[in-house]
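Example S7 (structure tokens).
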């Protein structure tokens, strides 16, 4: 464990070169030995197959007649066509071409024109489970799946909160997304939505696979927009020294990220959990999956009535963030290297963490290939989180 870092650190003006990672962070692949959400549960309909991708690997999610979900590499062992074009048959999937049939372990169980006596090897199966309205797949070494940390999504199933599920494809490396959320000094980007807000870092803490930072906010000018009031649940001060005592904690606990807002009596009024899943082999595009949980106020129905406005407000913020991180990716591609000149120590710590926890580009892919074996037993029955 790392020691706690100094409190009261200010974000501006301190050039933090000693902790700056020496290599190009955008050439660091996400580590595959984690549970990643690859689809919303509602996208994987009963009796259907659903094609997804992880870092260039095609994967098919199959919801069987009984309602359970399993995950296989999305290719038939016969002529390599996608199994996602096939037909769900009870608890198995049948390839659309010659009808070879695969069960949840990836084993080929039937070839209609050969019978069951001469069955070939099957395809790779991935450990798979559902939680929080998401289908999670363990994309790395399946032997590690049972002991790997699974995300805490408790607010999303707590009736005291109302949860919005959101996300889109974003054309950038997943590390830009981590930097964007953790760096609250970019409120200037959102000035049209949120007015003039000033973030103040209260300090950061670091562990082996996590970093978190606390912020407070003060409004420097203007009134609080109503959309922001709905998200945060209470009115903010109108002068710099008039800031309320809410504390926002942003945490990257590899590979996930959270943002929680607690009031001075330690009530959590907002709980955001978010994951960025690389889609292509270069990891230049990610699919973002977010669960935004807002504590219900004492007046029944108030949050439900205001929900469309909250959705509109959060979509506007996300749209601006998406636009800017895609511009960062374009700049990186144009320059051919990471020329970022980061001055905020929190972000340099975050970059170091992402560098340490990820794998050099292509290295994880190679390891995954060598681990690719047939007839892997998927983990379908892990205890609920
Ligand atoms: Fe799949 Fe022939 S290609 S059964």
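Recovered sequence:
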């Amino acid at each position: 464990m790392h020691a706690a870092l100094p409190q009261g650190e200010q974000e501006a003006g301190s050039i933090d070169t000693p902790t700056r990672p020496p290599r190009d962070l955008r050439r660091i692949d996400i580590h595959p030995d984690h549970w990643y959400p690859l689809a919303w549960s509602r996208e994987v309909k009963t009796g259907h197959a659903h094609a997804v991708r992880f870092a260039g690997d095609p994967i098919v999610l199959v919801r069987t007649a009984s309602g359970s979900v399993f995950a296989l590499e999305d290719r038939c062992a016969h002529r390599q066509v996608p199994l996602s074009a096939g037909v769900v048959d009870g608890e198995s999937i049948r390839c659309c071409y010659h009808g070879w049939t695969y069960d949840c372990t990836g084993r080929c169980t039937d070839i209609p024109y050969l019978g069951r006596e001469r069955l070939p090897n099957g395809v790779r199966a991935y450990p798979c489970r559902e939680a929080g309205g998401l289908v999670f797949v363990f994309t790395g070494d399946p032997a590690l799946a049972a002991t790997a940390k699974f995300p805490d999504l408790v607010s999303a199933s707590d009736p005291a909160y109302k949860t919005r599920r959101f996300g889109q494809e974003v054309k950038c490396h997943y590390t830009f997304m981590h930097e964007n959320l953790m760096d609250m000094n970019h409120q200037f980007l959102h000035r049209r939505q949120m007015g003039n807000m000033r973030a103040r870092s209260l300090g950061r803490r670091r562990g082996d696979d996590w970093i978190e930072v606390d912020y407070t906010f003060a409004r420097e000018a203007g009134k609080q927009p109503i959309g922001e009031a709905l998200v945060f649940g209470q009115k903010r001060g109108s002068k710099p020294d008039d800031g309320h005592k809410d504390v926002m904690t942003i945490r990257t606990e590899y590979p996930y990220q959270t943002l929680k807002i607690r009031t001075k009596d330690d009530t959590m009024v907002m709980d955001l959990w978010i994951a960025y899943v690389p889609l292509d082999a270069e990891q230049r595009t990610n699919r973002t999956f977010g669960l935004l949980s807002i504590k219900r106020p004492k007046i029944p129905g108030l949050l439900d009535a205001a929900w469309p406005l909250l959705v509109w407000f959060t979509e506007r913020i996300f749209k601006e963030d998406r636009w800017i991180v895609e511009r960062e990716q374009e700049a990186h591609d144009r320059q051919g290297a990471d020329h970022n000149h980061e001055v905020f120590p929190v972000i340099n710590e975050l970059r170091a963490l992402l560098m340490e926890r990820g794998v050099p580009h292509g290295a994880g892919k190679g390891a995954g290939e060598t681990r690719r074996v047939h007839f892997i037993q998927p983990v379908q029955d892990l205890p609920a989180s």
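Notes on this example. Residues 76, 78-79, 81, 95, 97-100 surround FE2/S2 (inorganic) cluster (CB under 6 Å).
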